[in-house]
Amino acid sequence: MTDIKQNTRINQFRFGQPQESLKVENVPLEELAADKIRVRVEATNINPSDLLSIHGVGQYKHSHQPPRVPGFEAVGTVIESKHAEFPLNQRVLVATSGTWQKYVDVSPDNLFYIPQGLENGYACQLYINALTAWVITTEIAQLTKEDVVIINAGSSAIGKIFFQLSSSLGFKLIVVTSQPEKYPYASSYVLDAKGDLTSAIQSLGLPEPNVAFDAIGGKAGTKLICTLGNKGRFINYGTLSLECYEPRFFEYAKNHDIDFSTFFLRYWENSVGKACRREKFTMMLEHFITHKIQLDVDRCIPLGEVQSAIDLIESKTAPLNGKIILLPS
Fold first, then answer.
1. HEC profile for 130-163?
2. For 157, 257, 276, 323, which has the most beta carbons within 10 A of its beta carbon?
């Protein structure tokens, strides 16, 4: 048992604009349930999925009803435990909803061991984007050195992971980004999202992609699928545009015998089970550390200033060079 009596958390009490739907609360800590482990959160981050769940967009309106604490991943230290596999002072990744708080009570199935010396800003990003990128490349697409992959949202956090995995796993990668001049890696395989992608691939003499990873959906997804040849594979893993695919998208897929599928981490977890998820996470973490896969941090902001952090992300006036990390005080 600990003598900590109070928790600081972000309460989302409704859907809507963050400044109207979030508030910082200090609440009493209840007694730890027998099936849970209490973790002191050291760092948690802000993902696009966090903002979509606050606004109540798409699937998030049904799966994450307020009142709730936002946040889907964090790093912290076990401070109270009734489970032998997670002793006191064990450093863990927290992979569950509700991480924007100082203390979080978690099922052991949603905790993962991480090395003691792993930096907080890095460690708290090892779930949503990192595990998604790892599973898509190694399990879903099962990429080889013969594959040529094209992705959109290439400058996003997960886009940067795909680029680094293309080097460590050996597949070729064509990157589509809205600001190719600011792309952080040296590559001749970078395309302007505003242009004709198929023409650009041909004019630059790039190989024809046979696999596409789509984070955006809508018109951007149509542009992406039109770069694939016959019998290509198209995997959608996000809908950043909040737009549905156009009829032309499905016509192209049918006419060119494209294998279309979707991937969402939560559904994959449910299908493979907790043990498989833990095994894949362990494999991913070993690969990331061995190959020095970077997970960028732009800045750290106190948890109580979450509105300022969200304003920075949503204003888009100052480009961010990584995730904003929230630090409970």
1. HHHHHHHHHHHCCCCCCCEEEECCCCCHHHHHHH
2. 323
End-to-end CA distance of the chain: 21
Q: Do the Cβ atoms of 152 and 176 come closer than 8 Å?
A: yes
pTM for the model stands at: 0.96
Distance CA 203, CA 296 (A): 32
Cβ partners under 8 Å of residue 59, min gap 6: none
C-beta of residue 230 within 8 angstroms of C-beta of residue 256: yes
pLDDT digits (tens, 9 = 90+) for 49-97: 999 999 998 777 778 899 999 999 999 999 999 899 999 999 999 999 9
Among 42-46, 119-123, 239-243, where is mean pLDDT lowest?
Answer: 239-243
- Strands laid side by side in the 190-192 sheet: 190-192, 172-177, 148-151, 211-214, 233-236, 259-262
Q: State pLDDT tens for residues 175-189.
A: 999 999 999 999 999
Rounded Cα distance between 234 and 151, Å, is: 10
